[in-house]
Every structure is written in C-alpha cells, then in structure tokens.
From TrEMBL:
GO molecular function, one term: transferase activity
Pfam families in alphabetical order: Acetyltransf_6
Transmembrane segments: none
Organism whose genome encodes this protein: Sphingobium amiense
The name this protein goes by in its record: GNAT family N-acetyltransferase
SUPFAM superfamilies assigned to the protein according to its UniProt record, in alphabetical order: Acyl-CoA N-acyltransferases (Nat)
Keywords: Transferase
Domain BioF2-like acetyltransferase per the UniProt entry, residue ranges: 178-297
Amino acid sequence: MDMASPPTLPRRGVPAPVRWQQLASAAAEANAFYAPDMLAPALAHLAREGEVHMIEAWSGEQLIGLLPLVLRSRHGRLPLRCVGNWMHPHCFFGAPLLLAGREQEAWALFLDQLDAAPWARGFLHLEGIDAAGPNAAAIEATCVTQRRGWREIHRYERAMLRSDLDAEDYWTAQVRPKKRKELRRLQKRLADMGEVETRLLDDPAALPDWCEAFLALEAAGWKGANGTAMANRPDHANFFRDACAAALDGGRLHMLRMDLDGRAIAMLVNFRHLDGAFSFKIAIDETLGRFSPGVLIEIANLHAVQGNPAIAWMDSCAAPDHPMIDSLWAERRTIVQYRIALRGRGFAGLQRRIAFAIANQAETLARLLKGLR
C-alpha cells in the first residue's frame, strides 16, 4: 500500500507500529533499522513530510512485508529519476522486513504495487542488501519468475562477527600476538592514569545520561568539527534518543561505555533484532587517541557479544576495508545493490523501460572504459 498520509495512521484496526512489530518479530531476515525501534523514530525525526512511501504487502489480513521507499532525482551520476529503499544517514542495512516463509510472495506484491503506482518513476534501486540473505534470494527468484529485468550493480564486503568461539579464543585466533601484546600495554598505560571501568548499560534510569554522554563525546571529535555529529542537528539527536529508548524498552539495546575516573572516554551502541545485532556507532575521546580507546572498547564489545547467548552474530555496519574492525573480526558480510525494472502501461511504462535501459547501458559502457585503462 502506498501511504501518502502519515505512516502512523491505523489500518485494519491495528496501529502501524504494532503491526510492524508483529512482522519484525517473525521476520525472515533481521534488520534493526527497519524494525519499529528505529523506523518509527526515523520517520518522526528524519523524514520530510511526504518523503517516505511505506509499502506494505498483505496476504488477506496478514502483513507479510514492509518496504520504506523514497523518490530519487538521480541514480549515481545519471540524472535519472528512480525509486529506492529509504537509507537515511543513520541506516546501514536496507533489507525489507519479510514474513518468514512468505518472502517471494511479499516481493511479488511489492513489485505489483510499484508497477501500479503513478509516483514510482524509472526503476527500483535497492541498497544495503545481504547477498546471501532471504531478500536477495526472493528478489532474484521473483524477477526470474516474472521475467522482470534486474541487475546486481555493486557489491562489497564488510566485517561481521559470527563465531562459536568464546571471546578469549576468538581474540587469540584472530589478532596477531604482537598486536595483542601492544593492546595489553595500552590498557596498562591507560590504567596508570586513573580508574578504568567498562560496563554495559543495565539500568533504564541511566539511559538519558548515557545518551547525552554519547552525543557529547561524538560532538567533541572530528564529526563535531565537520558538523556531522548527531548533536549538531537536533532532529538527528532526537532520533538517537528515541531509538535508544524504544530499543531499551524492548530489551534490544546493547550499549557499552569505558570510563576513566568516571568520565566517558569511549562508547559503543548496538541495536539487536531477532538473533543478530547491528553495530550502530562508536564515539571516543580523541585526546586519548594514543591509547586506542576505540579498539579497547571493541575488545569489551567482543566479550559482551560472545558472552550473550541471545546474540548469534553482529554486523559491523562498517565501510569496506575498515582498518580497525577488519583487523579484529574475521568474518565478512557481502552487501549488494540491485536495479530492478518496473512495468507500466502507456507513457509511464515507456519511461520506465527507457530509464532502465539507459542505466544498464551506461553501466556497461563505464565498465568497458574502465577495462581499457
């Protein structure tokens, strides 16, 4: 359903966040960014009015799919209008929520709705999809079944943590002895400066103070200087506060901090969904960079994750070839983008076919030119 009205309006007698939570709890693929804990605050604070189209796939009275979409005026460097999954600045995974066992049915309904939607221009561009996940399989199978054009247009690998080893065995297996020795030295030097305490948030009453400490720590570093820290933009800071509160209320917030004499010098925020978790953001005291506080809190995070039976894996959400996390986590997650053809009648259908063909031809030409260099 294309919801032109605000996305929190009730449908079929059930408020949107409630039915979305029901779907999220039975989803085929974890995505904390599209679960209500993060999606509802993002819609409230980060989306412009009318910007996000919430596409819902229904089978009778059962919601089996949820896909947030936006219109885009460009596709990479091409001035082609298209539709894309909503990846706001704090969203690092773009897999729609699909009811387990109904994945291909949900994708067929998504595409049927987009074919019929007059506002859906060009083609569908999907980012942040796990190449080995249920969405990727359902997308490809649906396009093949419908004889619908599609292309995988980009892929990269990013670090993830998925291991049956305990934290100490994983640390020993993954990190070189020389580096482990250096990090133990840094831990000792930091402890010489004062009392070092690392802890996991377990008191709901402490959350507001922890959120403000994180925002302040992030703003004091290079992000604050560049104007990209969440505290630089009140709507982004409010999204963070509300998302953390919602996730904590549902038992899905995983937040750590490292203090030196009671002052936060490193903090890390993870959001859980199903049996997995997504590493959202890290903030450090950059004046203590010589002690590698980011690495030290990641060591604490490793112990917290591997010691929690409810967390089977964690996605780093990091950029490819990240120098820090890639050296600590051995596993990798392949992230892909898709371009999918949309259909239609008359001029709208022609425009969609032309846009899809132009994008494909431009990509093919770019690859040929790159190969000649």
